[in-house]
Amino acid sequence: MAAGTRSPSSDPFEILGVEPSFEIDLEVLERRHRELSGKLHPDRYAGSPASERREALGRAIEVNEAWRVLKDPISRALALLRKRGTLLEEGSEPPASPEFLMEIMEYREQLAEVRQSKKRESLSRLTLEMKKLEAEATRELAEAFKTDGQAIQAKLGRLRYYRRFLDEAAAIEDDLG
After folding, report:
1. How far is 88 from 77, CA to CA, in rounded Å?
2. In CATH terms, is domain 3-71 a member of 1.10.3720.10?
3. Domain residue ranges in the chain
4. Under 8 Å between Cβ of 123 and 169
5. How many Å is the Cα radius of gyration of the chain?
6. Contact 53, 42 (CB under 8 A)
7. Do domains 3-71 and 98-176 have the same CATH topology?
8. Residues 99, 66: Cα–Cα separation, whole Å
């Protein structure tokens, strides 16, 4: 495949040549990424004209960005919504229920206590609990894409809360050494 056989696209599904769906087999996606990356590797274009090398590099960057977007459930959901004509910025989803916000606040209080106490086992327990909630929210989001377009934004909002919590937990773990 020559570097110029495909026109540039901002659609990560199109770039990687996969069906636009929330439920993607990540192993298949990774194989496709590796295959395209190999075809676009700079060594393959070492003797080519500069314009071909630049085009291959540009495509390689597109492929890597598409892989980054599609392997992450939140980014993949946003890309799928864009493809459907819906632009959704963070914070534009419907407000979370007071019960959910209270639950998140309680988890954050526990995380703050872990930060103070520096107890790794407590951090591990909280992280594991939150990863289970994140996995469930991801499953619910996948189901919403299949059946209930109205629920997508709310499910995506929940997933973002869980992801922010996990990012903060990872930062605490890094601080603990």
Report:
1. 10
2. no
3. 3-71, 98-176
4. yes
5. 20
6. yes
7. no
8. 36
Give CA torsion, residues 52, 53, 57, 63, to 10 deg.
50
Q: Over the range 124-133, which residues count as b (16 or more CB within 10 Å of their CB) and which as e?
A: eebbeebeeb
Query: Is it true that domain 98-176 has CATH number 3.30.300.30?
Result: no
Residue 9: per-residue pLDDT: 62
Q: Calculate mean pLDDT across residues 15-21.
A: 93
Cβ atoms of 42 and 56 within 8 Å: the answer is yes
Give the CA count within 13 Å in the CB-facing half-sphere of 159.
Answer: 24
The per-residue pLDDT for range 111-156, each reduced to its tens digit, is 999 999 999 999 999 999 999 999 999 999 999 999 877 789 889 9
> What's the count of helices (H) and strands (E) in the chain, helices before strands?
7, 0
For residue 13, give both structure tokens. Answer: 């599904």
pLDDT tens for each residue of 48-77: 898 988 998 999 999 999 999 999 999 999
Q: Which tokens go with 9? A: 């696209």
